[in-house]
Amino acid sequence: MAxxxxxxxxxxxxxxxxxxxxxxxxxxxxxxxxxxxQRERDRLxxxxxxxEGEYGPVTDADLAAAEVERREIEQWFDExxxxxxxxxxAA
Length: 91
Description:
Blueprint: H1 12-22, H2 27-55, H3 60-90
């Protein structure tokens, strides 16, 4: 992907904190990933808005049902991983 240099203004403390954590050579990559994540969130927000416009807002009952399903899926994956660990140990 082609790149182009831009000038942006950031709070100095934030920029220096990031630079000290990722190193000077990785600062641009870090900022790029942060912008990409924000764009994904923005697009997701737009999609949620469109879906809520078409189907109505998400209810507390919908959220609770989704959380139950998420926990069931997480438990299933944990069980699969535990079974795989046991098979490896037995081998």
